[in-house]
Amino acid sequence: MFYQLYELNHAMMAPWRTAADAMRLAFSNPMNPISHTYLGRATAAGLEVFERTTRRYGKPEFGLPETLIDGQPVGVHERIVWREPFCNLIHFERAVPKGRAADPKVLIVAPMSGHYATLLRGTVEALLPHSDIYITDWIDARMVPLSEGNFDLDDYIDYVIQMLHFLGPDTHVIGVCQPAVPVLAAVAVMEAAGDPLSPASMTLMGGPIDTRINPTAVNKLAEERPIEWFRDNVVMPVPWPQPGFMRMVYPGFLQLSGFMSMNLDRHLIAHKEFFAHLVKNDGDAAEKHRDFYDEYLAVMDLTAEFYLQTVQVVFMQHALPKGEMMHRGRRVDTTAIKKVALLTVEGENDDISGLGQTKAAQTICTNIPEHMRMHYMQPDVGHYGVFNGSRFRREIAPRIVAFQREHARHTNPVKQVIKGGKTA
């Protein structure tokens, strides 16, 4: 009944949130003399903090209406080009000038680990000037009716293969964090089958390929508890009246609690500073806080079968690096990968996927030629810095673009200089 109690509590708080928002507007209205006093600003700030910490955050927008190509602004339009019950594939269509040579076609596989695909907004934004971008938009499990069936790790791998088939030859795939394992498994399955539509390259970023290496707090929790503990304590049915009523899920609010508990002091300090910025009328700093937490606090449910299988296979059994991972009754053989170039990227201070866990892909993919593989470790960044932020834009993204252009199969790469990188 825990999920039901959470929903009931949220509903009970709705009138208080509404009242707090109305009072905030009254205390911050410039026509109200109190709004120009410390008491008025402090009251309005406290009311906003209360409203924001008790609301449910909806799915954010990518909000990328344009990009720069060859130094010129061009429009960008989001379009869903492929649909399945648990995932949509979004294409960022760019108004590319006619006659311009094609850019690399890139499939970004976003994490299915609690947050929406918009968590990779910065990743998309940095690559968009140089690449034709597609991204997985995973569906909140509580919005998928039971009639659509289950979704587990095997289905995830199947989805990746289907999307690569849909996109056709000379596609490059990027797996960010959690998808590193299913992306690598999907490529191994395709290569073992001699699939001509296997990607030209795969880039794995901050992913748990082998969590025995430098285990983090997340990894240790999985090792300390039996799978039955996770099934009994964090899996629960979706309450009525959601479309996925009675579907067994790992709820987003539980995941969020886990995320925040890892750095609780940091979040408390951030909200204290947000309050202070509001009182001081420091609009820019307050808006940065809103933007970050609008994204960070927007979470989605995962299907129980996907979550439990991932915990068991990836974090408990370490099946992929040990050569024991199975997909549809067949062993996933990473040594079958021979024609797909491999780039692995890690952050020096990553506290989610420890240093060396992603690089392990280089070790288990033994038959990729040396000239088709590369590893890069970015100094002074944590987990999110691997795929977002200034160092990603300046140091990591140019390397990804250059690597993809170097290992394109069927198209003539565009010769250009990428700021912060090298000639590609």
UniProtKB/TrEMBL annotation:
It comes from the Bacteria. Residues 206-407 form the PHB de-polymerase C-terminal domain. Pfam families: PHB_depo_C. NCBIfam families: PHB_depoly_PhaZ. This is Polyhydroxyalkanoate depolymerase. It comes from Ensifer oleiphilus.
